[in-house]
Specification:
Blueprint: H1 3-6, E1 7-18, E2 21-32, E3 36-40, H2 47-54, E4 62-66, E5 73-76, H3 88-94, H4 102-115, H5 131-144, E6 149-153, H6 161-178, E7 181-186, H7 189-195, E8 198-201
Parallel strand pairs: 3-7, 3-8, 5-6, 6-7
Antiparallel strand pairs: 1-2, 1-4
Length: about 210
């Protein structure tokens, strides 16, 4: 298949600046749907800003977006951002569709908790979990909504190597089920190569990227 026919998420002529700081100027990039794309680069190069623009958190100054219409999104931040008053099960059930019955919600939450190997901790609250466990819950929660696009902003930063590799394996196993489009921001070269089907490298001044 021609690679150009696979590309369906396209950003053209993106412009964004904060005060005098120009982040993007006539910037172009495209992503494959159903793939895991890593955006690799140092702090301050525009990675998170791009993710926030795609997710609707930050407004672009100008630009066109093709293929994003009607898409649903999940976000995984560097901090897990779990609801402290809800258990592991409650945090996952919280994002599930209201159209599901109570038993369906419970069953889906249970399945995802098992996928990240936290079934013994399903009734625990975030304050009772380790940092690695909390991030596993955050990853499971992102996949609970059956989103079209999952935006991941340095979710593994600061973890030790062994835990990081374990989390990446859990993430890859969950992704294989439905294969949503994943845009994964990182400054870590090894993360990018282990998680990304494609890798875009940003420098201090982003340049247009069309594959």
């Amino acid at each position: 298949m021609d690679k150009s026919t696979i590309m369906s998420l396209i950003i053209k002529n993106l412009n964004k600046q904060f005060g005098e700081n120009i982040i993007f100027r006539d910037f172009n990039i495209s992503f494959r749907e159903g793939e895991r794309t890593c955006i690799l680069g140092p702090s301050g190069c525009g990675k998170t800003t791009l993710l926030n623009i795609i997710g609707g958190i930050t407004e672009p100054d100008s630009g066109s977006f093709e293929g994003f219409e009607g898409k649903s999104y999940s976000y995984v931040f560097q901090e897990p951002r779990l609801l402290p008053w809800k258990t592991v099960t409650g945090n996952i059930e919280f994002v599930l569709s209201d159209s599901l019955s109570r038993s369906e919600r419970t069953a889906k939450a249970k399945e995802l908790i098992e996928r990240v190997e936290l079934e013994r901790f399903a009734s625990y609250y975030p304050s009772q979990l380790s940092g690695g466990m909390s991030r596993r819950v955050a990853i499971a929660r992102a996949f609970a909504t059956d989103s079209d696009i999952i935006l991941m902003d340095e979710p593994l930063a600061g973890l030790d190597t062994e835990l990081k590799h374990t989390l990446m394996q859990w993430f890859s196993d969950i992704w294989k089920r439905d294969k949503p489009t994943v845009l994964f921001v990182t400054h870590d070269e090894s993360e990018a190569h282990l998680l990304g089907n494609e890798i875009y490298r940003f420098s201090k001044a982003p340049v247009s990227i069309i594959s």
